[in-house]
């Protein structure tokens, strides 16, 4: 199934008319997912604190002739429950609907043993990588409940290993959170697909920062891994929910057959 989803390409216009929120959409995997979704007709809400990079992604999407996206600047480290309620209200007022959410934004400050972990840093890591995702999804769930084919996809990362600290705890917590959401919404009356995708190593700025000894050109580009996200966000996934897709490490020259993303 992994190889099938890596090579998955939706039908033209498969996401036409849908509104999809992507966190961390300014760069890396989030940018690749945002562009790929727009390629198949979705209107993207790009949530990111890096406004300049988000504007670059915006330009790339518009210049390609895809639906005009929206930029929503937000720092998930300091955002409050009201900030996410305001986000939901803005999407409802400006776009009228929400069909999908990609929980992609992540932050890993450093590999640190528990004995030496700074307590404030621990709290910040848990906020960005776990608690903020709860606040966001709670705020937008009413819109997803109203959508005819709603989906939540979480960009997972196997990190319950030594020195991953709060990042590992948050990622494990998010896997459990997605299981809980999938179970609660596995109901014909208000069905929402909830799945996770662990891409394995990809060429992102966060990986370069935390793996300084690794040749960044030895890992795959984010654009090569968008297939599974498109699948779970679109109608072809049907009632498949509660799945945790873990991909094997892809070669550096891997590519996605659907385009350049």
Q: Indicate the CATH architecture.
A: 3-Layer(aba) Sandwich
Domains (count) = 1
Contiguous helical run count: 8
**DSSP strand content:** 5-15%
CATH topology: Rossmann fold
What class, by secondary structure content? alpha/beta
Strand runs, count: 7
The rounded distance between the terminal residues' Cα atoms is 22 Å
Radius of gyration: 17 Å
Whole-number average pLDDT?
92
- Low-confidence runs: none
CATH class descriptor name: Alpha Beta
User: What series of H and E elements makes up the topology?
Assistant: HEHEHEHEHEHEHHE
Overall shape: globular
The largest sheet is: 7 strands, parallel
Range of helix content: 40-55%
CATH superfamily: NAD(P)-binding Rossmann-like Domain
Strand order of the largest sheet: 3-2-1-4-5-6-7
Family: Belongs to the short-chain dehydrogenases/reductases (SDR) family.
InterPro entries: NAD(P)-bd_dom_sf, SDR_fam
Protein name: Short-chain dehydrogenase/reductase SDR
Pfam families: adh_short
């Amino acid at each position: 199934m992994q190889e099938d989803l890596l090579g998955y390409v939706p039908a033209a216009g498969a996401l036409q008319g849908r509104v999809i929120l992507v966190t961390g959409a300014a760069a890396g995997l989030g940018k690749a997912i945002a562009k790929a979704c727009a390629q198949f007709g979705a209107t993207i809400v790009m949530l990111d604190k890096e406004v300049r990079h988000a504007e670059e992604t915006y330009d790339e999407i518009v210049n390609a002739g895809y639906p005009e996206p929206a930029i929503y600047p937000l720092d998930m480290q300091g955002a409050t429950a009201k900030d996410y309620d305001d986000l939901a209200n803005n999407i409802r007022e400006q776009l009228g609907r929400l069909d999908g959410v990609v929980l992609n934004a992540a932050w890993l400050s450093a590999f640190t043993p528990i004995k030496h972990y700074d307590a404030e840093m621990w709290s910040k890591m848990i906020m960005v990588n776990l608690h903020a995702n709860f606040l966001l999804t709670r705020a937008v769930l009413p819109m997803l409940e109203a959508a005819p084919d709603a989906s939540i996809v979480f960009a997972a990362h196997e990190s319950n290993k030594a020195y991953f600290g709060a990042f590992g705890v948050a990622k494990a917590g998010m896997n459990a959170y997605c299981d809980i959401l999938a179970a609660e919404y596995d109901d014909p009356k208000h069905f929402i697909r909830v799945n996770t995708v662990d891409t394995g190593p990809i060429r992102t700025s966060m990986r370069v920062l935390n793996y300084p000894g690794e040749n960044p050109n030895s890992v795959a580009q984010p654009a090569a891994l968008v297939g599974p996200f498109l699948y779970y966000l679109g109608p072809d996934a049907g009632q498949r929910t509660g799945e945790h897709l873990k991909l094997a490490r892809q070669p550096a020259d891997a590519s996605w057959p659907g385009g350049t993303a």
